[in-house]
Amino acid sequence: MKTALRINTDFTTEVLDLSTNEYSQIRDAVGGLIQPVDLKPDLTLWCNEEGKLVSLPLNIIASHLWERSFGPTDLILGDCVFTGGTDEEGETMELSHAWLVQLQEFAAKFQREIYA
Predict the structure, then answer these.
(1) Handedness of CA 94, 98, 102, 104 (dihedral sign)
(2) Staple partner for 51: which of 39, 56, 65, 114, CB 3.0–4.6 Å?
């Protein structure tokens, strides 16, 4: 299993298996053209490249992680997928268990605070 995590704008999460049809699964999960951004060597954010053009809702978690990596330079819109970094051949790596747990807990915390 090649694990990835989808974090939706409503803070719900879904574990994805990218073992087959990686590109189409990520594209379907973000709802359109995909844009990868390496936030850390072992963490890649995949978002909808046209999120601003089609007025997708703010993804608070993805935007927060962007800001932690690059400063307050942009907002990330729409549902996003997180994977591990890339290997020496440029292939997408699976999301580590540590990142999976941390991101799920982060999403659950925001969901509790926002919808409490």
Answers:
(1) positive
(2) 56
